[in-house]
Every structure is written in structure tokens, then in C-alpha cells.
Amino acid sequence: MEPNGILIYAELDDNNNLKQVVTELLSKARQLKEKLWNQRVMACLIGPRINYDNIISDLGNYGADEVIVVTDDRLKIYNKEYYAKIFSDIAKKYPPRIILIGATNKGKEIASYCAMEFETGLTADCTNLDIGENHLLLSTRPTFGGQLTADILCSTFPQMATVQQNIFKPEYKEQNPTVNFHWFDLDKIEKKIEVINICKKTASTFDISSSKIIVSGGKGACKDNGFALIHELAHKLKGTVAGSRSAYEAGYITKAQQVGQTGKIVSPKLYIAVGISGANQHIEGIKNSGKIIAINKDKEAPIFKYADIGIVGDLFEIIPELIEKIDKEECNE
Ligand SMILES: Cc1cc2nc3c(=O)[nH]c(=O)nc-3n(C[C@H](O)[C@H](O)[C@H](O)COP(=O)(O)OP(=O)(O)OC[C@H]3O[C@@H](n4cnc5c(N)ncnc54)[C@H](O)[C@@H]3O)c2cc1C
Q: E strands, 127-188, where?
């Protein structure tokens, strides 16, 4: 069968809500299909047996022409062996020209398994997607440590790409998708992994991709208890703590809190960069922020080129002043 259409993995979160990255990928796929003779955009939804009516209509409204649903109560807890096998078998059944998957932990597992099954290429962590020469998917991603961007054309099918959340804008246009339910014989899947327990994420590893306010610390804050000030400011602003790779390497934040090319792409309304120089790889992760405030004692620091408000000064003086101002405002309310 000729490869046809664009297939997207409709990932759900732990509460069976649709991940935002899926709506973003669908909206992008709706643009791409115009350059592909209007081939179908398909979303593959895998999960336990629950009512997916709202999710299916969201998938349609964000761009899916067709929703393929596989449900089974054994899919209640994510298991790569089930999910990756089901997704790649569905992909083989249809088979699409293009497969797009969110670059989440689960998405990355499913994408790599699927690429291996098809023996095709996979461009990971793309920062743009388009249709290039010969109607092939043109995937753009940073390379050489973020110093260059590479445009990659994959000539084997399906052409696969993963994309982090917040790269594309979701666009809502009402549309009713066709829905196809598939039954899958899970007993036939040889399972080598048994999930025996799930530990819920703690507040400190809250998903920064969805935070509205982020206070982010860099190497400049990795001394003299600078991160205690960052936590206090984030708490006052009801925001989330994040940081640069230097802060991660110094052990002040977890990998899930690292912002940038090899961390998370964020799009908060407010991003406060404290003691962060503004290396390309960090900027890559904050470009979609609403407003950026930078606090740095070096007036030449590159971060100031990207900041809406730049404060040149020592964070150990500036942040206590900011906290004091917030406290006063709260008292006056
Ligand atoms: C392949 C690759 C991928 C990478 N991925 C990422 C990534 O995802 N995210 C990322 O962040 N980096 C990434 N990096 C690293 C990146 O190149 C920089 O090294 C890193 O971002 C620097 O972190 P920083 O700004 O915290 O530290 P620095 O560059 O050392 O900057 C510290 C800043 O703090 C300021 N400062 C010091 N003391 C104070 C004070 N008291 N008050 C105010 N300001 C002060 C200094 O003036 C300085 O500007 C990557 C690098 C490579 C090669």
C-alpha cells in the first residue's frame, strides 16, 4: 500500500487528558497536508476503556480527519511494550507518509521503537516542520551544540519526527473526525517488563512546560544559598523553579527542571532568568516566553539581548528587594 497521510500519536497524561503537544502537532499537520494533496491527518489514541468522546472531538477540532482508537483495560498503566507495539502495528496497517510524535518520555520510547520496526529514519526534537523537495518532510533541528540548525529530508517512509511541547501553536477549527475502533490481541504481545508500582511526581518535579510563571536560576545562583532566594521568589509569585544546565549539573535542580535545548522548551507568561548568561542552548528553550526578565551582574551578558526587562545587579541584593516589594503589595491589598 502507498504511504498516505500524516499519523500522530494522541498521547494522554496520567489522568487520561490529552497532552497539549498533541493539539500542537495536529494543527501543524493540518498546515502540512495542504502541501500533500490534502492527504488525511490521523490521530491514534491508545488507552483504557473509558469514554473518549470529548477527547475525540478535541482531536478533530485541532486537525484530525480520522481518529483510530485502541482500548483495553490492561492499558490503564503505561507499558512501552503494549503501547509501542500497538502504535507501530496501527501505523503498519494504514501506513502513513509521515508520523509525528510529541517528544515526551513516552513519545520518545514509542517513536524509537516504531522507527526501528519500519527501519526508517527519525528526526528527534525538531524545531520546525515543513514539506520540502519531492514532497518530503523537511525537519529542522539544532545541531553542533545549538550553533547551527540542520534541515533534514528523510527519503524512507514513514518519515518520522518528534517535537517538544510549545514549539507549534494549537489552532482550533471545528471539525468532526471519522472514528475507527480497533481491537488488539494483547495476549500476543510478549511482555518483558511488568509495572509493579507507580510513584507520583512530587511538586519539585512539576512539569515546567506548562508553568505560567518560571523563576530560573543559573550558575550565578549556585553559591551562597542563591537557590534558596530563587525558591522564595517563585513561591511568592506562585511560580515554578527551573534552571540552566549549569544549575542541573551543580545539583540544584532536577533534569526535568532544566530549560533549553537538551532540557525543556517552556512558554510561560513570565520567565525570570537569575544569574543565567544566556547561552544559545538556553535561549532555545525560552524563546516562546511571554515576558523575560533577566537579573545578571554582568551588563554584557547575552541574556539581556532577549530580555524585555534587564536588571543589572547582584541577585543577592535584587531578589530580597523584589521579595520585600511583593510582601508590601500583599499587605496593601
Ligand atoms: C550540546 C549542548 C547542549 C546544551 N544544552 C543546554 C540546555 O539545555 N540548557 C542550558 O541552560 N544550557 C545548555 N548547554 C550549556 C550552555 O552552553 C551554557 O554552558 C549554560 O547554559 C550556562 O549556564 P549558566 O548561564 O547558568 O552559567 P554561566 O554561563 O556560567 O553564567 C552565569 C551567569 O551568572 C552571572 N552571575 C554570577 N554571579 C551573579 C550574581 N551574584 N548576581 C547576578 N548574576 C550573577 C554571571 O554574570 C553569568 O552571566 C548546552 C551545551 C551544549 C554544548
A: 128-131, 137-143, 148-153, 159-163, 178-182
